[in-house]
Structures
1.
Amino acid sequence: MCLDIKPGQKELLMIPITKRAVAISAALLTAGGLAACSSTSTPSGPSSGPPSKPTGVLRLVAASGFDHLDPVSAYYTADYILERAYTRQLLAYPYAVPLAVGDAQWNKAVTPVADVATQVPTTSNGGITNGGLTYTFHIRPGVTWQTGAPVTSADFLREFKAFCNPAPGGFVGNIVYFEATIKGMTQYCNAEQAYFKNTKAHPITAADVANFQNTHSISGIATPSPTEIQFTLVHPAADFIYIMAMPFTSARPASYDSYLPNSAQLNQHIISDGPYEISSNVPGKSLTMVPNPNWKASSDPIRHQWVKEITLTIGVTSAATQLADEKAGTYDLVQDTPFESTAIPGLLASHDPHFRIWPWSDTFPYIVFNLRSPDAGHAMAKLGVRQAFEYGVNKVAVQKVYGGPPVAKIINSVIPPGNVGYTATNLYPDNNGNGDPAKCKATLAAAGYPHGLTLTALYINDSINTQLFQAVQASLTSCGITLKGKPEPGSSYFTDLGNAPANNKPGTWDIGFPGWIPDWFGLNGRTIIPPFFQTDCVVNTINYGCVNNAQMDKLITQAEQATSTSQAASLWTQANLLAMKNAWIVPLTDQQAPYYSSSRVHNPGSTAIAYQPNIGGPDITNIWVTG
C-alpha cells in the first residue's frame, strides 16, 4: 500500500502492494539462489506483427484491482495501467524497450514526448517564453472524446480546477508539484477549500463544486483558444515537462461536472479520449474495455488499438495461482500483485521467454538516521557514527535478502542510477559492498565510541523486513554497533517513523528502513531530494531524520528553479553529494521489476510484455494477442 505520500513519492512495504509503484520490486523476496542466474531471459520470438484491426482479448488479472478511475485521484500502478488506455495528456511517455537503466531505450522511455500537444514546448520552437515562465501547448487536430466531441483546451483546464476539489477522496493524488510551479494554483486551491469549509452554507454537491470551478480561475492557466493552453510559472522549472506528463494532467470532459470527483457515480460514466473505452465496470469484480470508435491512430503518436477487448478479473489473490494461470493462458498479465518470488530462480534458470526482470530505478530500501534521538549520547547526531554505518553495512547481505544481483542492484547514492544528479562515486569504500568492519570500528572510535554502542532499529515485522534487519544487524556487530530490534506492523510503521514530534524521545528509534520510488525518472531530483532532506520536521514527514540544513535547502530551491537540465543536473548532483557527505541515509539497493506474460502476448519489441517504466508495469496499448 502507499503510505506517507509527500511531494510525489511513495513509501513501500515489502508486502502488500504499493500504490504508484505496484510491488513488482517489493516482491523480490527469495533469499539467495539467484545471484548465479542470468539477469535477463531470451526474448520471445516475433509474431507475425501487429494486426491490421483490433483482434483477440487481452485478459488482465488482479487481487484487488485499481484504486481510482478518475485521473485526478489515480496514483497507483494498477490505475496507471488502465489509464494508459482511456486517458491522454498534453505530454506523455512513449513505448520503448529498456534493457538496462541508462541505455538509449531507457532514456527514450523516460523522456516526455508530445501526446495531445503538437510538440513538446522548448525555447527554440517558441513554446517556452517569458524567460522560462510561460509554456504554451497547442492541441493536435483529430483528438476526440468517445462521444465524437473534440478535446479542447477547456478540458485540460477543467482537470487542473478539479485538483483541489472538496469531495471525499477526490483530492488530486499529488498537488505539491503543481502548487510549487503554476502561478495562482495555491491561491485557487485555498479559495476552494475555504469556500466549502462551511458545508451548511456550501454543500459539497456535484453542482456546487462544478459551479465554483467554472466561476473561478487559476491565474497561471489561460486558454486563448480551444486549441491552445498556456501555463505561467511562479519561477522557471526545467522539470516542468515531467510534471506535465503525469496522468493527473489528463483532459477532463465537461460531462464530469455532473458527478463528484472520484465518486462511484463518476466511475460508471468514465469518458475516453484514448484507444479504448470502458464498457463495463463491476466494482471489486471486473472491468471491460473495448475499442473507442472515435479514436484515430493518426492523432495518437503513442498508443495503438490492437485488441478488440481488454478484460480485468479481480479477486484472484494468490500470486502463485496468477502465475500458473498466465502459464496456462487463462490470463495474460497481472495488474496489481507482487510477483511470485519463489518462481524467479526457476524462470531465470530455464530462460523462460515470457519472463523478464525489467530495469527500474529506486532507493529501496535505505537506512535513515533519527538525528534527534537522545540515545547513546545523541549518537545519531554525530557524523562519525553515521559514517561508521556507511562503511560497516554489508550491502551484499542485504542484496541477498531481495534475491541477489538480478533483482537488486547495490547503490551508494541517494539519487539512484538513470536519473539526473546520480553519481557513481562511493564516498565510503566498503569492500565492494561487503562492508569494512575495521574502517567502521575506527570511525566509530574517532566519533567517541571506542567500546561501541547500542541503538534501536525500527522495522516492519514481516518476514522480509525481519531478514533485512538481521542482515544489517549481523554486519555491524563486528565493528561494535549493537542493534536492538523494534519490530512493528506495517500498518503503523511509517506513521511512527514520520512522527517527528515524538521522535526526540529516548528509545523511540535510532535507525529505520524505508524505501522510495520516484514519480518519474530522468530529471527527477524534485521527487527525491526535497522529501528526504528539505527542512520539514512535522507530523507525517518523509524527512524522517529531521534533517535541517540551510545549504541543502538552498540547493533544493536553486535546483527546482533551474532554467536548464544542465543547470539542474549540477545542483542535484551537489545536493546528492552533500547528503552523502553528511551520511543522512545509507542507500542500500535499487530493486528491479520482474514480470511474466502468457504466450499469447506480443509487442513491437518482442520482449514478453510492453513494459513502461513510468507506468511501473505493462503498456496495454502497445500489446496484441494471438491464439
2.
Amino acid sequence: MRKPFSLKLLLGMTFVLLAVFLTNPIGFQSGPFQAQPAHAGFFDDDLDVFDEVLELVADNYVYPPDFKKLFTAATDAMLKTVEKEKLSVTSVYSGKTLETNGKKFSYRLSFNKDENMQALQGVYDFISRELKGKVSKKDLEKAGIDGLMGSLDPYSLYMDKEEFEASMRDTEGQYGGVGMVITLVDNRLTVVRVLRNSPSSRAGILPDDIITRVDKQEIKGMQIHELAAKLRGYPNTQVEIDVFRPSTKVTQLTTLTREIISIETVQYKYLGDHTGYISISSFSKKTNDQLEDAFEKAEKDGVQAFVLDLRDNPGGLLSQSVKVASHFLEEGQLVVYTQGRNRNDTQQYDSVYNDRWSKKPLAVLINSHSASASEIVSGSLKDAGKALILGERSYGKGSVQTIFRMSDSSGLRLTTSKYYTPSGIDITIHGIVPEIQIERDITGLPNDNTPSGKPKDAKAPVVKPIIVKESQIQEYLKKRKETLNDDTDLLVAFAKMAINNPPQPTKGHALAKARELAEDMHHY
C-alpha cells in the first residue's frame, strides 16, 4: 500500500462536468496522494507507470478487482494503437495470437494478476520490437493504462502530467476557459449551463445547445475529459466551436476567446415576504465564503425562510458540501459517511457549525443534473428533517474518487469508496428522491426521474412523492393574481408558498402545507 500525501477527492457529476474544466472534485483537504515508484522486479523500466496504476487499483479500488477484465481491456487498448499496421490478431481458444513480418506471439489471460502482467509485458515487447518506429513505447503504455482504467467506472481516470496539473489548478476556483457547464447526453456534448459574463454567454450560447466540432475536429466518441481539455486553454487564446441548436435546427460556427473564469458559485436574492433565495452552482473552495456573504445580506433583509437551489449543480469539494449543509443542521449532526471495499473502511462527516439558520424553514430544489456534493447536501437535510426537497430525482453520483500523484508527475483519479446519506441511502443507486415531484409539462424538457442506468434495489425505501405539474402551479398563480413573466420560476414560487406565508416551524408543517397546495392545484 502506498503512503498517502493527504487528499481524497470525489468528482462533482458523473457525466455532468464543467465544460472548460474538469468539475471541481469533491474531497478532503490540500494535495493528492503520492504513489511511491514501483519496482517491478524482472520487468524493465518501460512499464513502471502501468505497474504503479495496477497496484493502486489492486489495493484501493472500491470493488475487488477482476484481473482478467482489467488486463483484457489493457491489452485490447494496446492492440488498437497498431490496428492499422500490418498486425494480425487471431483469437485462439482463451487467448490470442499476434503475427507480423512472419513473427508470432501468443498469450492468454487468467484471473491471476502476475500471470496476466507477464502476458501484457509480452504483448508490449512484441509490438514495440516488431513494429519499431510505428508506435512509441510511451503511447503503448498510455493506451494500456487508459484501457485498464476505462474498464472500472466512468469516474476513474488516468491523467498525464499536463492534465493532472490542470485538474489540480481547477480546484482553486479559477480556470482558463470559455465558461460553460457541459454533459454528454446520448453521446452528444450538451450545454447544461452558461456562466454569467463569460465568453460563452457573450456569444449567445444557451443551455441545451450541442457542440459538434471543436477547432474543426469531430468530437464524436471522445471522453468528457478530452472534450473539456479542448475547450480549456491559456487566456487570450481562441477556440472555434460548431454549435447546433435543437430548437432551430441550425448549426452556427462560433469563435470564443478564452479568459480566466472566476467562479461565482453562490447567488442570492430577496424574494419578498421574508424569504431569501440562494442558488449554488457548484462547490469550489470559495463557496462557503460566498454563502456567508449571502447570509449577511439575508440578515439585513430580515429573511426568515430560505429556498436553496441546487438544480444543475454537478458537485465539487466535499469539505464545502459539509460546511454548506452545516449552516442548516445542528452542530455534530451526521452529514454523510463513506464505505470502502473493507467493512472497517468507513468515515463519517459531521456538521461543523451551530448556526442560527438551522431553525429557519428551508426548501431545497434539485433536478436530474444535481449530483455528487449537491446530493450530499440535499440528502443530509432531507434525512435530518430540516428541509423540504422539491423537483426531480437527483443524478445519483455517490462514489468517492481519491487522487494519486504518480512517480512521473502524472495522476490517477480512482474510485475508492461510496457515499451514503445519514439514513444509509446509497446515493449512487437511488439518488435523492424529492418529496414534492415537479413534472415539467410546460418547458417540454425530459422529465426522467429514474436516472439512466441506475439499478433498482428492492430494499430501497419507497416513499410516494406528492406530484405537481408545472401547468398546475402556473394556473394556481394566475388564479391568485400573481404577476407572471418569462423570468418566473414556477418551482421557486411553489417552494416559497410551501415554507412561508406564514413561515412553517418544521419540515412536517411545510410538507403538510405543500400537500394542501397540491390538492388545491389539482382542482384547477
